Amino acid sequence: MKNLLDYCEAHLAATVQTIETLVRLESPSTDKAAVDRCGTVLADMLRKAGAAVDVLPQQERGNHLRARFAGEGRPVMFLGHFDTVWPIGTLERMPLGRDGDRLHGPGTFDMKAGIALALAAMEALRVTGTPRPPVTMLWTTDEEIGSGTSRATIDAEARQSAAVLVLEPALPGGALKTARKGCGEFELTVHGVAAHAGLDPGKGASAIHELAAQIAVIERFQDLPKGISVNVGLVSGGSRPNVVAEEARATIDVRAPTREAADAVESAFRSLHPIKAGTRLTIEGGFERPPMERTAAVTELFARASDVASSLGRALGEGSAGGGSDGNFTAAVGVPTLDGLGAVGDGAHAAHEHVDVTALPWRAALLAGLLVSFR
């Protein structure tokens, strides 16, 4: 493994340049033209690295990219996204720049550095002549907004793969993610009866009052010691202060660590019923990303990665994440999935977003070595 690490260290400047090139191409999920500009450059990078690249066209979202690198045996899948949460113009107030060992900029940590690491790993294997299995890279454009147009492709490619390696950012210190919570969203709409708040208050049924009562019930669904979080994040309702509210709604974020817990939360929401006479409820939504659980297959995959890290002189930790990724989908279809193989750094979705430049070589070598273990 040392030859792989030596190569990645010697070519650190090229890895940083790749990150900088991708970050300068701002790519907010909802701006198709911008995302596609970034995708065009990335596709060219992949072709120069020796991949056969398929552009998967989308009507409203950016075009996804699938890159195949030839090899022997069953393919291993690299998975990630090049859309970001940052709108066009963010670079003006959050400029791309180096501060010592930190490379700052919108999208550096989440997760354009992960893409650069994947390319660096493949180049290290190519130049050193190290045998490896086939690699399928899938870089998507809508992960930050739910993966609505990419999920079918993610599932299909994962099912053909021996394992999925997700290039999302690492946990603090470089630890990998061997579990992620399932993520969902519910919308509760309360239908009441409008009436004049002064002349005929008794003839009305307030949707807002009913919603308040329902929120008190929903709060009891939360069980933080068991990893179940329930957050009523948006509330709206009513039309005027002097009108008994005819309608009110709440949007609720939910997270659960296991499929069993997610099913229990869904069941609790479906069992909600009106408390105040004259009102009725409409409940929509559910879990969009299933939990990524720490199965025996995930444990074995982490052990492989830990052995590779040890050969590189690194100790590798593991942990769970409260947020979801596309790795949740691949784990749910039964494919061994290891997440957090991307950059070490901090500040995903935050103004201090950055990557640790000194960690880039060993992270690229870790990826390369993990691929070799599948031969």
Description of the structure:
The protein is of the alpha/beta class and 375 residues long. The chain has 2 domains: 2-180 and 293-372, 3-Layer(aba) Sandwich (Aminopeptidase); 182-289, Alpha-Beta Plaits (2-Layer Sandwich). 35% of the residues lie in helices and 23% in strands. It has 11 helices and 16 strands. α1 crosses α5 (108-128), α1 (2-10) packs antiparallel against α11 and α5 crosses α11. The longest helix has 21 residues, at 108-128. It is elongated. The mean pLDDT is 97.
What is this structure, in a nutshell?
This protein is an alpha/beta fold. It has 11 helices and 16 strands.
Overview features:
single chain, 375 residues, alpha/beta, Aminopeptidase, Alpha-Beta Plaits, 2 domains, six-stranded mixed sheet, four-stranded antiparallel sheet, elongated
Number of domains: 2
Please identify the structural class as seen in this structure: alpha/beta
Uncertain segments:
none
Please give the radius of gyration in angstroms: 24 Å
Instruction: Indicate the proportion of strand residues.
Output: 15-25%
N- and C-termini, Cα separation = 14 Å
Shape label? elongated
Percent of residues in helices? 25-40%
Count, helices:
11
What is the CATH topology descriptor of the largest domain? Aminopeptidase
Mean pLDDT, rounded to whole units?
A: 97
CATH class label of the largest domain: Alpha Beta
